Amino acid sequence: MAGSRARCRGTTTCAVSLARAKTTAGRAGCRVRSTHPPALNRAPRQRRSCGRPPLLYAADVDKFRIALCQVRAADIEDAEANLQRLLSALDGAGAAGAQLALLPESSYPAYYLKDSRPYDRPGVRAFGEVRALLAEKARRHGYWLAAGIAVPTASGGVTNSGLVFSPDGEVRGQYDKSFLWHFDTKWFERGTSFPVFDMGFCRAGILICADGRMPEIARALTLSGAEIILDLTAWVSSGKDPAGLSNIQYDYMMPVRAFENGVWVAAADKWGTEDGSIVYAGRSCLIDPLGVTRVSAPSQGDVVVAYDIEPLGVELVPRRPGLYGRLTAPTVSLPVSALLQEPLVPALDNRRVAVVPGPGMFDARAMIKRYEGLRAQDADLVVFPGMAAPEGWQVELSTLEAAVRDLGGMLAFGTSTNGCMWGRSATLVTPGGSLEHVATHGRGITLGELPSPVTASPAGNVALLCGDEALVPEVARSLTLDGADILVWPVFENHPMNERLARTRSDENRVYVAAAWDGGGVVTAPNGAVVAASPEGSGVAMTASVNRAMARWKDMAPGTHVINDRLPEAYGALTR
């Protein structure tokens, strides 16, 4: 993934008030400055055309300061005390010289609302009154404010929204959460659009908590011109140590959203509990376009994290919208919908998958030797990395095919050639023959025109991700919609984001990923967990059990389904 990135970046000084935050990517002189007047006097920038981002884009943001307000969660019965903490945090953002301040998901009156009419409860102030208080803070401190709040609707319900206030205290727009999580559906109405807000110094898109689990949402925001994604969140957690709480979105998913889209991600979270049963992770953070967490709050404590953002040019893997038609097709028409209706007996579907790190060069005989040993350990699918290969390496395929016919199982690997043209491909060898998939995405290579087929096997339906294809979320999503249970990823570079990418592709699609590269390899489960990992640099192969029944279970939480809860009609920007 050399040079594989995308857009905004930079860092300068960071400032933390009320509590000490943890800086994870070096210190650049932590201090609080006086003020940074908002850049409101220039003409709006021209938008990039949807679906056709340039290969290299230097984000046209001005240097600006953002403040993430991490506040203690409160039950809806304690709405007034909660409101006072929110207002105090906003004063802290002003004291830190913020030009943009964030409040977490459903900061007021609470996240766990218990019904769809929270503003009718005793002790809960009228929505208009709370909105006026937030507007006054934005006006007093002269910053933009994105506030997570329950917003009443004309139908008598509420949306889980991010209200955007300008420095003059006016409401400039609203984003409504669209991927509703668990009991969200009991009282929140679903959003269906992905607006981007021009703040003068940057263009910002908003997503709310579980929205970050759907790759289409962050991508739609980026294609509409967002240079930073504001994550107003309430990351739930569990664990024995309150100081060590975390969440998968903090650990790997939001870093991948930043990395694959080339944008900054700013997340403001709650900490503490609601209703005696919902625990929040804290960890409000700022992630750069390389997927590096630049600064992070602890899991406990009221904190205002302020950080300076400035432009950064980074390279993106070019998208190919013409290949993403599956993303906007009606869900009922997709192969995966039929698969999810098939009866399965989990006890009869246990299989083994192995990942083999290295070697760096294609060597059919060495591969067969490793394959023989792993088949003796019951590996049904063995995945080798992407390897350099001579022009005409395919003459060795018959040797590999003969070994697989003799031994059974399946073998997969990637090859990179530099003959008349640079090219990369991934090959799956089965007892019935071999299939070579030419990479459809990449940089500086000749590209294929067809996505990987989905191949039925005893281990489940297998599809190939070749090299940089895994960096483009539309590719893995499309293969999932085509019915893949296992995504096989031969990787050509040893990159620090490899494992996070594998975990995210598993988690967002509820599929297995088997990835191997020169220095290591992982097998990740449909919930994103690493079920096998090769010790880095050891060359040791590792195996893991897989069961396709787990890849057909697409629920992330009760009432939260990664296939049925997509909004294909809202994803038009991804295919243009």
Structure overview:
- The chain has 576 residues and is α/β, with parallel strands linked by helices.
- It has two domains: 14-35 and 59-315, 4-Layer Sandwich (Nitrilase/N-carbamoyl-D-aminoacid amidohydrolase); 335-575, 4-Layer Sandwich (Nitrilase/N-carbamoyl-D-aminoacid amidohydrolase), CATH 3.60.110.10.
- The strands form six sheets. Strands 1, 4, 5, 6, 7, 8, 9, 13, 15, 16 and 19 form an eleven-stranded mixed β-sheet that branches. A seven-stranded mixed β-sheet has the order 2-18-17-14-12-11-10, covered by helices on one side. A six-stranded mixed β-sheet has the order 25-24-23-22-21-31.
- A hairpin with a 2-residue loop joins strand 24 and strand 25 (433-438).
The CATH homologous superfamily of the largest domain corresponds to Carbon-nitrogen hydrolase
**Count of strand segments:** 33
Domain count, please report it. 2
How is the biggest beta sheet arranged? 11 strands, mixed
Beta-strand portion reads 25-35%
Low-confidence stretches: 1-59
Give the CATH architecture of the largest domain: 4-Layer Sandwich
Helix-strand makeup class: alpha/beta
Rough outline: elongated
Q: N-to-C terminal Cα separation, in Å?
A: 25 Å
CATH level-1 class of the largest domain: Alpha Beta
Helical stretch count?
Answer: 11
Task: Please tell me the overall pLDDT.
Answer: 90
Radius of gyration: 24 Å
Helical residues, percent: 10-25%
CATH topology of the largest domain: Nitrilase/N-carbamoyl-D-aminoacid amidohydrolase
